[in-house]
Write the C-alpha cells for this entry.
Amino acid sequence: MNPILTIVTKRLLIGLLTLWIVTVIIFAAVELLPGDIATEMLGQAANEETVAAFRERFNLNGTVFERYVSWLAGAATGDFGVSLANQRPISEFVGQRTANTFFLAAYAAAISVPIAVVAGMMGALYNGSVFDRMLSSSTLAAISFPEFFIAYILILVFSVSFGWFPSLANVDVDAGLGERLYKTFLPAMTLTLIVLAYMMRMTRAAILNLLALPYIEMAHLKGIKRWRVIAVHALPNALAPIINVIALNLAYLIVGVVLVEVVFVYPGLGQVLVDAVSNRDVTVVQAACLIFAATYILLNLLADILSIIANPRLLHPR
Amino acid sequence: MSDVLLDMKNVAIEGWSDRRWKPIIKGVDLTLKRGEILGLIGESGAGKSTLGLAAMGYTKGGCRISGGSINFDGQDLTRASNEALRQLRGKRIAYVAQSAAAAFNPAFKLIDQYCEAPVQHGVMSKTDAQKDAVELYRKIRLPNPDTIGFRYPHQVSGGQLQRAMTAMAMACRPDLIIFDEPTTALDVTTQIEVLAAVRDIVREYNTAAIYITHDLAVVAQMADHIKVLLRGEEVEQAPAREMLANPQEDYTKSLWAVREFRRAPPVAREGGEETLLDITNVSASYGAQKVLDDVSLKIRRGSTVAVVGESGSGKSTLARVIMGLLPPTEGEILHDGTPLPKLGTKRSRGLQRHLQMIHQMADTALNPKQRIKDVIGRPLEFFLGLKGAAKEARIRELLTLIELDPDEFMHRLPSELSGGQKQRVCIARALAAEPSFIICDEVTSALDQLVAEGILRLLDRLQRELDLTYLFITHDLATVRSIADDVVVMQNGVIVEQGPKDDIFSPPHAPYTELLLSSVPEMDPDWLTNILKNRREKPLQ
Amino acid sequence: MQNLIHHLRDAPVSAWIGMIIVAFYAIIALFAPLLAPYAENVSIGAQYQPWTAPHFLGTDALGRDVLSRLIYGARNTVGIALLTTALAFTLGATFGLLAATLGGWFDTIASRMVDVLMAIPPLIFALLILTITGTSVAALILVIAVLDSTRVFRLSRAVAQGILTMDYIEVARMRGEGMFWLIRKEVLPNAAAPLIAEFGLRFCFVFLFISALSFLGLGIQPPTADWGGMVRESAKLISFANFSTWQTATFGLAPLLPAGAIALMTIGVNLIVDWVLHMSSGLKE
C-alpha cells in the first residue's frame, strides 16, 4: 500500500478514536454530577411517581452503558434528548443556533484567511522592514488583548461614534443574507482581529523558516528571479505549514465564537452553552460541548491529513 | 578576451554578531584564469566558503562585502546591480553546495531543477535542456541517465545527488563553478566517484573552478593552484605540485606534517599478552533492523584496536553495545574473564568506572551549563568519593595531564573553550574515573587536522603513562595508521577482516578492505588518475 | 547573579517597558489595601458618578468606587491567575520532565492522556467541568490548572527530549547517575530559559482565560472585585458613550477600564517573554 494512505488511515483512526473518547468524557462528566438529578431537579415535587416519569423522560434508566449507547446513538442522529431547564427537545433550538455559529465563523474566516496569508507572506519577504515591524507589534497587541476588549473598542468606534454598524447582532431566523452580513459585521471583525494576528505570525514564521533552507539559497545562486524563487520554490513547500496554520485557527474560531456571541448577543451555540452552564442544564451543556468538540477535532484532523498529503517526500515514496 | 576570468582585489567581508561587524575575510586577493582550477584550503573558520561565495557577488545573511573589488570578466561584482548579478549567477557562475540533499528542492524532480537555470536564463528551451541533462548525466556516470532525472531528490543516494548537482551547475556551461566542500559529507568509497566525475567534466568543458575543501589530499587531485587561508587571511599560494612538494610557510608545513604522525611501537609486555575484553558472537539490532551480525574480537590489555568502516557499518553500534547502552540480542562480552551484564544499569559501579567512552562531538558531550571543574569533578566524586580539597587537587592534576592550565580553565564554561580544548576536557572526564579501557568514538573527526593531531598525540602519551587500552572507532584511515596496533574492518554490521595493523595494511586484502584502502585520497597529485586506471584494468568485485 | 545583571544591562527598551508594567501591577496587587482610597465592596455614594474627585474613576451601578475596585481587582485577578499558572506549571513540568526522562510506558500513557485532554478546546472543557463542580474559586483554579498543565507538559517534554539526546546525558547515564540527578543537574539548567518564557506565556493565557470566564459570569463571582467581572457589570454602558461632554464620555468608557487593565498586563508579560525567548535562542549558538 502507498505509505501516504497508511499514514492518512492511521491518522484518521486516531482522530476517530479521540472523538470517541471525548464522547465518553462528555457523557461521564454528567454521570459524576453529585446527587440524583431527578430528585434535585424536581425539588419539592419529587415523589416516586414523578421521579420515575422524570427518569423515563431523561433517559436515566438502565445501566451506565445502556444510557451511553442510547445517548450516543441519539446524538449521532441529531437527537440530543430534552433540556432539563425548559423541557424542550434540544435539537429544536440547537440546530438553528449551530448554523448561526458556523455562519459567523465562516464569515470571519472568509475575511481573515486571505488577509493573514498574504500579510504573513509579505512580512516574511520583507523581513525587518517597517511593514514587518508594524506587523509584529500589531500581532503582539492582538495576542495580548482579551476578546471583549477588542469587541468593545469596535463597538465604541463603529457603532457608538460613527453609527455605521449595529452593536447587537440579533439576527432573525428569516433574515436575508445581506442583512445577516451587515448585522454580524462587528462580531465577524472581532473574531477576525483575534485570529488574524496568530495566523499572520504563524504564516510569517513558517515562510521565514523555509526561506532559510539551503535549497532556497541554491535557487538564488542559480540566478532565478526573486518572485519565481518564492512562487515556485518556497510556496509549494510552504503549503503544508500554511494549511496547518489555517485549520488550527479555524478550529480556534469555532471556540472563540463563544465570547463574541455573548458580547454581541448573537443567537449562536456559544450563547446556548453559556446560559446552560449558568442554569446547570447538563443535557444542553453535553450537546453543545459535543458539537464544539467534534468540530474542533475534525478540523484538526483535516489539518493533519492535508499537511501529510502536501509533503513531497510522502507523496513520492522511494 | 582577457585571459583572466576572475580578479578579486583586497576583498574584505564582515559578519554581524554580538551587535557589531566583525571581519571574516581581511583583504584577500584571488586571481583565476579561464579553465583554471584553484583549490582553496583552510581549517574551519578560515573563511574559505565566504570567499568562494563572494566570487559570485553573494554573501550569506548577516554578512556584507566591506571592501575591495571583485572583477568577473570585466564587471565589478561589488558594484553590480542585483539584476546584473542575478543574470550572472547560474548562467556564467554556478555553485555546488556541500549537502546536495539539502540544496535540492524536495518538491521537484531532478531534471526539472536541472532545466530551471537554462530555461530561466533563456539559454535553452525546456526540451533541449532535458536532452542536455541526460547527456550530462551520462557523462558524469550516473546510473540510468535516461530515467534518473525523473526521480525526486530523496529517491536518490547522496553520492549520486552530489553528481546530479554538479551536472546541474554545468547546465548553462558556466565560465566558473564554485565547489563548496562537495565531498565532505560522503564516505570515501563514494567520494572517489564524485571526485572523478567532477574533475572529468570540469576539464572537458574547460570550466574554471574554485574548489573549497579542508582535505589536502582531495585538493591535490583537483587543483592547478592551491591557496591556503588562515582566519580570513591568505597564507600562501602556489601551483599545486610546487605547493605539495615544497610548502613555504610554517603554517602550511604544519598542515602537511599532520599526516606523518606515527606512534612509537608498543613495548612488549612482561608476562605475555593478556586479553582485557573478549567479544564473542555479538549481534544487535535497532527494532527489526539488524545492525551487528555475529561480531567477535579480542582486545589485549594496553593495546589500541581501531574499528574502521563507513557510515552504516555498525562500528558505533559496537561501542554502544560494549558500553551497555544497547543490549546485544546474542553473544556475550567478557571483561577480564567475567561476563559483562548486557545493560549498563545492571553493571556495578566499579565496572562502569573501568569502561569509559569519549564522544565524537565534544560540543554536545559537555553540559553547557556546567563549569569545567564540575564536569571533571563529578566522576571523581561519583566513582572515587573525593570531596573538597582532595577533589580540587585531583582536578588540577587532571587538567595538567591534558595540558590545560588549571588556574585558567577550571572555572570556565564549555562555551568559553575551543573545539580541541573541549575534547581535552572530555578526555580528562574519562580519565577521572581511572579507567582501564576507553572507547574513542570518532574523537578527532569533528576537529581540524592540526588540533586532531594534538589530541592523538595526547591520547598516545596517556596510554603509555597510564597503561590504558583503547578501542578507536573511526572512518579515517590516516588516524588508524597513526595509532592502531590492531585493525578491525567492518561493513554492513559484519567484520570483514581483522588483524595486526601491518597485516591489514599490506596485501593481500579482503576485497572491501582493498576498496576502502585504495579509495583514501593521497597527497600525490597523480593518485586519482592512477587509481582510476588501475580499477579499470583490474575491476574490483 | 552577575549574569543576570549583565543581561539586564543589555535588555532592549521593549523588555524594560514590560518589566516596568509588570512591576507596576505587582506593587498595586501587593499593596492594594494601602493604595485603594475606598474599600473593595462598600457602596460609598450615588451610582454612576463621573470621573471627578474624590472618585477619580467614578462609581459603578452599586455606588462603589471604581478606582478602588480596579486596585483590588489587580490583587484578585492577578493573584488567582498566578496561583493557577504555578499549579499548572508544577503539574505539567513535573510530568513532562518525568515522561521524557523515564520514557517507556509512563511516557506513552501520560502523552496519550494529554493528547485526549488537548483534543477538547479548553474553554469548552472548562465550561463542561464547571457545570458539574459549580463556580467556586477553588474549582476554577483546579480546573484551569489541570487543563493548562497539558500545554506545559507538551513543551517541557519536548524541551527535555531535545536535551536528552545530547551526548552529555549519555555520559551521565553511562556513569550510572540516578534519574533525579539527571533531571536536576543535567536537564533543568538547560531547560530553564524556555521554561521561564513558557511560564510567562501560560500566565497570559490563564489570565485571559479567567477574565473571559468571569466575563461570562462563570469565573470569579461577585461581589469579589475582578476585572473580567467588572467588564461584564458595566458592559451595557458602552452603548451610551457620548463624547459631547466629559461626563457622558467617561460613563460609556467604564467597561474599557478593566478590559484595558487586562490588556496592558498581558502586553507587559509578553514583552518580557519575547526578550527571554530571544536571549535563550541567542545563547544556543
Remarks:
- The two ends of chain B are 49 Å apart (CA to CA).
